[in-house]
Amino acid sequence: MITSEEIKRRLWDGANELRGSMDASRYKDYMLGLMFYKFLSDKTLSTFKSIYTKDHITESELITAFKQSIASSGPQLEKTLQAMQGYYVLPQYLYQTWIKDINSGDFEVQKVIDSLNHFERSIAGSKDADDFKNLFSSSTLDLTDTALGSNLNERSKNIKALILLFADLDMVALQKGDVLGDAYEYLIGQFAMESGKKAGEFYTPRQVSEIMAQIAAKTSNIRSIYDPTVGSGSLLLTVKKHLSKEVQQSLTYYGQEKNTATYNLARMNLLLHEVKPNKMTIKNGDTLSHDWPEDPAHPNEGIQFDAVVMNPPYSAKNWNRAGLKVSDPRFEMAGVLPPDSKGDFAFLLHGLFHLGQSGTMAIVLPHGVLFRGAAEGEIRKRLLEKNYIDTIIGLPSNLFSNTGIPVVIIILKKNRHLAEPVLIIDASNHFIKVGKQNVLQEKDIAKIVDTYVNRSEEAGYSHLANRQEIIANEYNLNIPRYIEAIDNEIAHDVDGHLFGGIPQHNIDELAIIKSTTPDLLQAALQSVRPNYVTLKGDVTGLSDDILNDPRVMNQSAKLAQQAQTYIDKYWPQIITIDDQDKIHDLMESMLAEIKTLLSGFNNIDIYDGYQIIAEIWQSSLLHDCEIIALTDFYTAGRSRVPNMVTKGTGDKKREVQDGFIGSIVPNALIASELYAEELVNIENNKSQIQTLEGELAELIEAAKVEDSTEYEALYESLKKNDDDEPLDAFDNKKLKEELKNSPKNSEQYKLLKKVDKLISEKSALSKQVKSDELALKEAVQEQILNLTDHEIDNLMYKKWFGNTVALLSELIKKTIKAELKTLQMLSERYQDTLTSIDDEILQLEAELQAMMQELVVTQ
């Protein structure tokens, strides 16, 4: 029972340990290529088993039977396997054969090379040849590369270690529920982050893919999808994820990729995600130099697709090496060629040329395409005149690992009415910082997609730009021309500073408090002159009154009740989930419903609530539902797995088991809920240890002060460094000697005895804590196996939803608290007037003058 999260962690840790100094962008080809070959071998054995027997049989027995069948009816069996899955791997070339050779000491790198070469030859004449051709070519997997090791022995050692990394993984079983595909996609993403600028050629960050894919998936009757710069195929697969199972089964995938290694990566990625060979057409070629895919029946039209998605290289220089003319059917509509120094519009026009009349295209490009002039300005004007541009989405800078520039997603459609406005969304300020990268949260993605779907306008965020506005701006689509950023800084009022008082118009802007508890706000204010007020008391008192007012409390209680009903509805669906394919649908249902629930309340941000539920899924539910679907809820609750920890460094670095952890129930939660008394005792002893350490630290500091009683009694007992300088600890051996040589009734003896007692008490308590913690750890590990159904219910509810109702109901008060904070700031801003400041200055001057008069000059 291994989950995708565990596979991801294990494989990535293995990759980091094995690749050494090899560049991540290069090492990924070896690791992902061999991982894919393991899948091909496992799939071959699985297909043979379905032909050979339905009985339980070990892998070793299955391989033996496979060898015998090939020996007796080779050509016919090969033909059958080819027909059933589009490829096959012969027994002597199986991944399992490599492992057997490694275990017996007969492994040779040449056997791996021979296996990969034979696979290429075996599929050469099949109808699916294009899907597998050159997957393992030496340009991609050069097993003689000195980067894998300076000599044959080193290369053999490193390749063996990489092969063994996948040895115990059943790739066919893991393919179900996209566990294998997700792990593969995760590795691609991790390699992308490690590769820095080189990542741009093969990976689109998940958050950007999600926006484009969710929008593209809104296309009705989608049957085909095309990515002209397919990279690793992540965009195509993200769109797939957002389509129903029925649509996925009939969907055809097209893609083109210039980089050969990345092209191979895309084909592997799609096949691992259960895209059938006959449903995918991926080409290795330059998208711009020659149009593809072409429709032989309509040479000037090209094949049309229901969805086109792409993340092309930004501002590609010298893109027109083929000497294309404006007469190329892809560029005819624009009337001009994009500049050779920037290929952004060349990619856009290529994608648009292949977009079906009722389809949707999503492309991510640098912001410059919105406002640059010359030929690009002409192309933009032509696109707007035909009203092909549907939506502009401005994203934050520094989202990509290969560039820090801000980017924009452009959505294009061909069937828009000429009067339909262009939706412009400015999401550039909606992100969090994670390390050096800016990251869109789940709520940011959801808000962008909802705004797109609803065509909604929001001040400072989105705007529907009509034709007249766009013409008035001379077809310049730079986002600040249409959306004015909201300045949350409240302007200073000169009269307020001079004469005191909060401007009444600032009070009027506290819209939420005024709509919720207007009487309490009014009662807390007093007029100081026309249009200026002050607070009668402090904001703290007013805050307590407002936040505890029945109107606010009733709304919080109402939201809490509805949130509880919402959780109660989904609880049984979560704990009874029995199919990994249902997990994504359940998550989407919960996320959609929380938005509907929260939209029934005024003055809250529904996307803050959305984020709360999204984080529960990301942090635990995705992982736990996967395990539940593989077994069942209570079996999973009573299951434990080895707790593997890394120890040592360098050559001595190793992974060892440190007890057990619950498969879904956290050990810490079991301890806090079922062993509370034991935890309290441990914490009390730890607290007592801290007290003793504090007393010892005081005595150490006192012992360093010359001429003090402590110095005379304790200095010699302190530990010293090589320069005989005192350290921050006592030397037990010296302490015992000093104690032995001191008169029993002396002050020195009393202090030494005190230190000795403190050290003894601390040592005894430390041993007790260590013993108690070990006993608790062992008790918890055993308790996992003996949890009752009732205990599992309580523990898992606390893990998933322990504070969810409180967090959701707190949304009612969140915006009120923000306005109360603003009121506090305004009150402090205008508290000191110019007159009061002048009075304070005069008072200080008078005090200074009085002090100066008291000064006496002495000779």
UniProtKB/TrEMBL annotation:
It catalyses: a 2'-deoxyadenosine in DNA + S-adenosyl-L-methionine = an N(6)-methyl-2'-deoxyadenosine in DNA + S-adenosyl-L-homocysteine + H(+). Its EC number is 2.1.1.72. Residues 827-854 form a coiled coil. Keywords: Coiled coil, Methyltransferase, Restriction system, S-adenosyl-L-methionine, Transferase. Pfam families: HsdM_N (PF12161), N6_Mtase (PF02384). Belongs to the N(4)/N(6)-methyltransferase family. PANTHER family: SITE-SPECIFIC DNA-METHYLTRANSFERASE (ADENINE-SPECIFIC), SLR6095 PROTEIN. This is site-specific DNA-methyltransferase (adenine-specific). The lineage of its organism: Bacteria, Pseudomonadati, Pseudomonadota, Gammaproteobacteria, Orbales.
